[in-house]
Write the structure tokens for this entry.
Amino acid sequence: MTPTRPRTADQVRDLRKRAEERLRSREAAGPDRTEADALRLQHELQVHQIELELQNAELERSRDELEAALERYTDLYDFAPVSYFTIDRAGDIFSANLTGADLLNVPRARLIGRRFETFLSPESRLAFVSFLSKTLAGDHRESCEVTLRPAGGGTRTVRLEGTASPAGNECRTAVLDVTEQRTAEAAVRKMNDGLQAVPPDDVRPA
């Protein structure tokens, strides 16, 4: 084996110079490809994480807004002064507000699935069936007047006003209690009939 000759001072300086030049070249080129890829991937992951955080914040805000809107709608629906019912094609009650449950004198939870017809007088049921059929067959408001028989006895005269749901499989019905109005009208008619039956003073028999 040939012994290695010791480097001269010029060779040492030349090697040092070449090493420094190579180092400067590497520094100018930046990190090697593997390190650059890793940094880029880390950056992308951080950006993606921030995007997810922003999306989650947006979803939470939307959820809060929807919950608040639902709560307002529920309050308006449940505590409206008008009775509201959703009735399916079979005539079964799908939903009702609290005012409607009070009108029928039945707890709301016990109304779901019951036929609306069972709360009508026999002579009103045909009119209701016709009202339901016409409402679900068209895209305009239908109405009819029927006699309601709430649980516990008594009768109420009500006006039904309904429209079909967008899918056309449910009838959204407002039930307006017109009992007092009809009673007053009947009293006025009776009074008028009585006045007409009495002859004027100048034509009464002596």
Notes: The mean pLDDT is 84. The chain has six helices and five strands.
